[in-house]
Design brief:
With 285 residues, the chain is an alpha+beta fold. It folds into three domains: 7-56, Uridine Diphospho-n-acetylenolpyruvylglucosamine Reductase, domain 2 (2-Layer Sandwich), CATH 3.30.43; 63-172, Uridine Diphospho-n-acetylenolpyruvylglucosamine Reductase, domain 3 (2-Layer Sandwich); 179-283, 2-Layer Sandwich (Enolase-like, domain 1). It has twelve helices and 15 strands. The protein has helices at 14-23, 37-42, 78-83, 85-90, 93-99, 104-109, 112-118, 124-131, 149-152, 227-233, 240-247, 264-283, and strands spanning 7-9, 28-31, 50-53, 63-66, 69-73, 135-140, 143-148, 153-155, 158-159, 166-173, 179-185, 195-203, 208-217, 224-225, 236-237. Strands 4-5-10-6-7 form a five-stranded antiparallel β-sheet. α5 (93-99) packs antiparallel against α8. It binds flavin-adenine dinucleotide.
Length: 285
């Protein structure tokens, strides 16, 4: 459980970090909270020659409001999100998600930027930022770019991020009166989702669902939006029968995975049950 040898670099500015990454892009890894990278390095599944610790770069650990949006710095930890009064008031889906991640130790070190960049198919934050239609700010040698999160995740631990690009912030909306919930089924041993469901719904005064965003993690090689469920809910008054029949479409066209936590049939059924429960929980929020 000892990682291979590597050169450690702790830049004090984004420019310094990007220049170093660009110079070593073939064999470099960014270190944020280290909660995913270090286990991989200790198991020798990742053997970078260079590790760039971005924890000393100023300005990456703030939560700020910009009009109807909130910009969360990449180095903001799961624990900061969990206990942020501002987020609990203005975008409660994020803190609700953060509380379900692992244990206190992991939440104290793990960051939102690391969770997004890592693109773990069982990670919780990817589902939640998808349900929030978040945008991801990335800085690299060619300057900065904003990536819609629907375009960000490609597959198992894969995203559109280049090796010399740094995720610097995540932009989410103020969700106001929207109904939101995050629910997951996870083994106690790891806490990772067998299925995790993030829900955001806009309900009108008459009790009709104007818009639904349902995102799911743990079920296939990346988090995804359950478009068919969303379409079945939009424009309807939600009752138990509709919620159940919509939830049954949550794995439509999805290549459900099988692993030590369950067969395809088990995970499919669990997903349908958890989508229905998450919609019900959101309605009560
Ligand atoms: C015991 C345990 C249980 C866990 N349970 C859960 C769980 O239930 N749910 C869950 O979602 N997660 C879980 N995690 C993972 C945890 O949430 C990590 O914090 C997260 O996946 C990665 O964040 P990090 O800041 O630690 O990133 P790191 O480990 O530092 O980095 C992860 C990867 O992302 C890259 N990277 C990091 N930051 C950036 C950046 N800003 N820009 C570009 N690339 C970057 C790194 O190079 C590396 O490849 C668990 C981890 C452990 C150890």
């Amino acid at each position: 459980m000892i990682p291979g040898s590597f050169e450690y670099f702790a830049p004090r500015s984004l420019d310094e970090a990007v220049n170093f990454l660009a110079a070593h892009r073939e064999d470099v890894k960014i270190l944020s909270g280290g909660q995913s990278l270090l286990p991989l390095m200790k198991m020798r599944l990742s053997k970078p020659e260079f590790v760039v610790d971005i924890g000393r770069i100023p300005g990456l650990d703030t939560i700020t409001q910009e009009g109807n949006h909130i910009v969360i710095g990449a180095m903001v930890t799961h624990a900061q999100i969990e206990y942020s009064d501002f987020l609990n008031k203005n975008c409660p889906l994020l803190p609700r998600t953060a509380t379900t991640i692992a244990d206190v130790q992991v939440r104290n070190r793990g960051t939102i930027g690391g969770s997004v960049a890592h693109a773990d198919p069982a990670g919780d934050m990817p589902a939640t930022i998808l349900a929030l239609d978040a945008e991801i700010k990335v800085v690299g040698p060619n300057g900065e770019r904003w990536i819609k999160c629907q375009d960000f995740f490609l597959g198992l631990l894969m995203s559109v991020l280049e090796p010399d690009e740094i995720v610097t912030a995540i932009k989410v909306p103020v969700t106001g009166n929207d109904k939101t919930a995050y629910l997951k089924a996870a083994p106690r041993s790891s806490g990772f989702a067998v299925v995790g469901v993030a829900v955001r719904m806009t309900m009108n005064a008459g009790g009709t669902c104007d818009r639904a965003a349902i995102a799911i993690t743990g079920v296939t090689d990346k988090a995804y939006r359950a478009g068919r469920v969303e379409q079945m809910l939009a424009g309807k008054k939600l009752d138990a029968k509709l919620i159940e029949s919509a939830a049954a479409e949550a794995t439509h066209n999805i290549d459900v995975i099988e692993d030590i936590n369950g067969s395809v049939e088990y995970r499919t059924q669990l997903t349908h049950v958890y989508v229905a429960r998450a919609i019900e929980a959101a309605l009560k929020s």
